[in-house]
Amino acid sequence: MTAPSPLVEPFDLVIFGGTGDLAVRKLLPAMFHRFLDGQLPPSSRIIGVAREALDDAGYRALLRQTLSAVCDAVKLDAFLQQVGYRPLDARKDAGWDDFAALIGSQPDHVRVFYLSTSPELFVDICGRLGHYRLNQGKSRVVLEKPIGRDLTSANQINDAVGKVFSESQTFRIDHYLGKETVQNLLALRFGNALFEPLWNNAHIDHVQITVAETLGTGNRSAYYDRAGALRDMVQNHMLQLLCMVAMEPPSSLAPDAVRDEKLKVLHSLQPIDAGNAAQLTVRGQYRAGVAEGASVPGYPDELGHASHTETFVALKAEIANWRWAGVPFYLRTGKRLPSRVSEIVVAFKPVPHSIFDVAAGPLAQNRLVLRLQPDEGVKLWLTIKHPGPGGLRLRHVPLDMSFAEAFGVSQPDAYERLLLDVVRGNPTLFMRRDEVEAAWRWAGPILEAWAAGNEAPRPYAAGSWGPSAAVALIERDGRTWNEDSE
Ligand code: NAP
């Protein structure tokens, strides 16, 4: 039986960009689920902010469309009573006096300002919050990705936010870290005696991290074209996953204990730059093809013009430290791939000597597969004997645990955990400034090498696993992408 979730202390959550896609599709449903679970004190308020001229009733009507699919009307009405709206332009003064009066500046009241807007507005919003002294006491600010498009722009954002909010008040969100499987990585690694002694280059052959999407860029093409897969996925989500796999055991789960260890991994990444980017990275861009049973256009058609922005990247990263020297981390991510799957695969080295006849069949690698989506869970591939009297034949089978099946409950969305972590003031699963900077320091030279090479990304058909060069990247090393995820 699941333990009841504890009530958090009363808070105000202000969502700048409250009418936007992220707020309506993710943040408000996440808070609604926490409400249904009884975690929100009745005096807590959620206030959407955007320029659109809505009132409370209009905003609630907007949210009702999304939330009504989730539960019955009575509970939804009760939740929406705690939700309000204020029309404000982050760049104009009008309305801010009233907004500041509404929020109040009592230092012992938790106020969370979630910046779910384009990062160009972060400086204006934080400046005004500071002007009205809404940054005092238990105020916190949540920054959505992207935090910059390179080290310089990330520093500009962090400097500007840092003038108003201290580092301990600043929560840089990476929703991948809120996923149940990522938490489970900590539990598996540090809660079992089984794995940690094997968790090094003596026993692990390589690691793969795949984040595959079936969707194209659609009506977000213009935004995406300024980013690309490396900025959108690798610099943040995938490096954070890599850090969770590779970090040394922290002394505790205290926020800085975990983040110090992740930072050391980022600092230990071998540089990829103009000298080796061609060998260690593959960029791709989808063309027309068939995705999820339907014909779909290519990226340039969706965008309306040709572009050098990558919608796919595969790369081989290496960590220069005693634990991981010689163990490649293969990362791949892309849009319009055949299935929507996010997985970490830890592939162990083969046994040193086989005692079995050739007739028993090949000995496959043990693989630990941590599935982040869909259907979060863990699979451990083992070699066993095929049952029956037909001689000793080997089979490779998974110990397969779907969290939803094992615990009989669907997993909460990552935003549910992370939003309440902000309310609680727990930054363990949020990125510290120095982590963001270290990630850009590693990713920047890759982007520069690509820009200097001025080569177009390799085309791949929508619905395929990316350019053939991505297969060659791993096969050159005598390895293959995990077929189970494909
Ligand atoms: P969006 O749908 O374009 O929403 C932007 C929001 O900002 C709208 O509510 C918009 O409302 C408001 N806004 C724009 N200019 C404003 C101004 N001057 N003052 C006050 N409000 C203003 O964007 P989104 O998809 O929700 O994404 C928001 C941010 O989160 C982006 O940085 C995005 O990269 C990031 N993000 C999004 C997702 C996602 O799944 N959508 C995932 C991860 C990160 P008005 O136009 O009415 O002002």
Which descriptors would you attach to this protein?
486 residues; alpha/beta; Rossmann fold; Dihydrodipicolinate Reductase, domain 2; six-stranded parallel sheet; 16 helices; globular; binds NADP nicotinamide-adenine-dinucleotide phosphate
Molecular structure report:
This protein has 486 residues and is of the alpha/beta class. It has two domains: 11-173, NAD(P)-binding Rossmann-like Domain (Rossmann fold, 3-Layer(aba) Sandwich); 177-412 and 432-475, Dihydrodipicolinate Reductase, domain 2, CATH 3.30.360.10. The protein is built from 16 helices and 17 strands. The chain has helices at residues 21-36, 56-67, 73-80, 96-103, 122-131, 151-162, 180-191, 221-225, 229-246, 255-268, 277-280, 299-303, 403-407, 414-424, 433-453, 468-475; strands at residues 11-16, 45-50, 83-87, 110-115, 139-143, 170-172, 204-212, 281-287, 289-291, 294-296, 312-317, 329-334, 341-348, 367-373, 377-385, 394-402, 458-461. The strands form three sheets. Strands 16-15-14-13-7-12-11-8-17 form a nine-stranded mixed beta sheet, with helices on both faces. Strand 4 (110-115), helix 5 and strand 5 (139-143) form a beta-alpha-beta unit. It is globular and about 80 Å long. 42% of the residues are buried. The mean pLDDT is 93.
